[in-house]
Write a structure and sequence with these properties.
The chain has about 400 residues and is an alpha+beta fold. It is built from five helices and 15 strands. The protein has a 14-stranded antiparallel barrel.
């Protein structure tokens, strides 16, 4: 055997002797590496959850925080917190229903919205107080019945007839159309006194002129977090007289971090009152300690009314817990005809509480008016309200 053959044999013997040690070291290294790496489905840098670990609970905001052009739906009934387990967590444990589970976890909702944009905060509070901004765009079927009693300046208590509002989402039309039926026994349809002048609040009950029932279809071709467009058409019956109505409504949201500017324009034509145009500008933002602030400018133009009434309001909302909230509002009402004058100053303190499950509300609204027609003399008043809100009404029909 030559020198080259001896070297080849020596190398083979060395390889045979060291292969077991190399394989053993490689196997041990692989075990150590696999224990150091996260298991599939677990985010890097996080501990692996065991089967007994409860899923992480978080809230879905009432309206998506991203203000893009993706189509969104209005908040679900009650705006309840939703749970979503992680990829490695055990499935959520079903909890028995109860009053605590039915109530809205207000503070969790507010805290989350403060971190991710406050659009959900505004929507939650508007829905809790039954604000027109929420009601006009609500994408849920519901029946609302309201009972009011009002007293002002030492006069006797005025008990109003029930006011009802029925809103049905029509799934056969891709949930873009709502049937709205309203019965307002306190509506004022006098052409010289619009039924809802700028600055009027729920505490200012208008003189009764007879029952009015409005039935209309409202179609929403555009529904996004930033913009909303709808067209309403229907009929209204007042004191035995039938009138047709039709008109569009448009809302656009402009983010001005940390503020939001909301512009809303509504135009209505009716065969009895002709043309009306209502304009809103809302500037709003959250404040520390779960407070919510909104400044609004609202104006109403009517074809049959001289001048342009408008109002400036400052509003502050303060949630107390899951079922109670306070609202402080200051409204200054103006009129451009015959001259640009201040018509009234109004201060309203509103307390609202859910007193049974998620459908029965109690509201108490002390107010202080300074009207021009009384030489701005202090005029106190108070409103008591019971409101019932029933959801999933489409199941009844």
């Amino acid at each position: 055997m030559g020198e080259h053959g001896m070297r080849s044999a020596f190398r083979m013997m060395v390889a045979i002797l060291f292969v077991p040690f190399i394989l053993s070291a490689a196997w041990a290294g692989a075990d150590g590496l696999s224990s150091a790496l996260p298991s599939p489905g677990t985010p890097a840098g996080q501990d692996v959850q065991t089967a007994g670990t409860a899923p992480v609970e978080h809230l879905e905001p009432a309206v998506p925080d991203s203000r893009d052009n993706e189509e969104v739906s209005a908040p679900s009934s009650g705006l309840q917190p939703q749970t979503s387990p992680t990829a490695t967590a055990a499935p959520p444990i079903a909890l028995p229903p109860g009053p605590e589970r039915d109530e809205t976890d207000l503070f969790d909702t507010l805290h989350r919205s403060l971190s991710n944009g406050f659009l959900s905060t505004a929507t939650w509070l508007d829905s809790f107080f039954g604000d027109q901004r929420y009601e006009a765009e609500s994408n849920r079927s519901q029946l609302k019945v309201r009972f009011d009693a009002f007293r002002e300046d030492g006069t006797g208590m005025q008990y109003r007839n029930p006011n009802f509002n029925l809103r049905l989402v029509l799934p056969q039309l891709r949930k873009k159309t709502r049937l709205v039926i309203e019965g307002d026994p306190n509506a004022n349809t006098d052409a010289e006194a619009p039924s809802a002048p700028p600055g009027a609040t729920a505490s200012q009950l208008q003189p009764t002129t007879g029952n009015r029932v409005t039935t209309a279809l409202q179609y929403f071709p555009v529904e996004t977090a930033r913009s909303n467009f709808s067209i309403r058409a229907g009929v209204k019956l007042h004191q035995g007289k039938l009138a047709a109505l039709i008109g569009p409504r448009y809302r656009y949201l402009i983010p001005l971090d940390p503020w939001d500017l909301r512009f809303t324009q509504e135009v209505i034509w009716s065969s009895d009152q002709r043309w009306q145009s209502r304009t809103w500008f809302d500037l709003e933002r959250p404040l520390p300690h779960d407070l919510f602030f909104r400044a609004s400018l609202q104006g109403l133009w009517s074809e049959n009314v001289n001048g342009y009434p408008y109002a400036l309001s400052i509003l502050l909302r303060q949630p107390l817990d899951r079922a109670r909230a306070l609202e402080y509002e200051w409204i200054s009402s103006f009129q451009t005809s015959p001259t640009n004058i201040l018509v009234e100053e109004l201060f309203v303190f509103r307390y609202r509480q859910r007193i049974w499950r998620d459908w029965l509300f109690l509201e108490i609204d002390p107010q202080f008016r300074y009207p021009r027609d009384r030489s701005f003399v202090f005029t106190p008043g108070i409103l008591f309200r019971i409101e019932m809100v029933f959801g999933d009404i489409q199941r009844i029909f």
